[in-house]
Amino acid sequence: MNYREVSGDREFVARLGHGEDWRSEIEALADEAGVDAAWFVAMGAVQDATVWFYDQSEMEYREVEFDEPLEVAACVGNVSWLDGERFAHTHAVLSRASGQTLAGHLDSATVFAGELYVRSFEEELEREHDEPTDLDLWL
Ligand code: ZN
Questions:
Q1: Are the C-beta atoms of residues 49 and 106 closer than 8 Å to each other?
Q2: Domain 12-121 fold
Q3: What confidence tens digit (pLDDT) does each residue in 35-65 have?
């Protein structure tokens, strides 16, 4: 395990733009507000979603697309630097009209409506390639 103490800095709430990309909206807030590290939660609804599942044997992401309206029952993630850009690592539990859930690493989704809370940290967080997992993890 690798850990550090961080200090909570600023807080933001945002309404995500209808028709915009869910994750891009979070990254746009981080860019505009100069947030270099943060934790966030969000909820709302999307018109479609592309969710990734990491295959731990093949060490690659499998992509699953859902072209249907979904509730964002819960969304959690964080912001850190990846390859010189602010990256919003985003996970979500999505639900269908039936109430069944889908979940995973949210790559993209078209916002129907979304509410976001962001808590930023004074310290900067950065990702770098990790050999054992082949993922980009915090330094
Ligand atoms: Zn993930």
A1: yes
A2: 60s Ribosomal Protein L30; Chain: A; (3.30.1330)
A3: 999 999 999 999 999 999 999 999 999 999 9
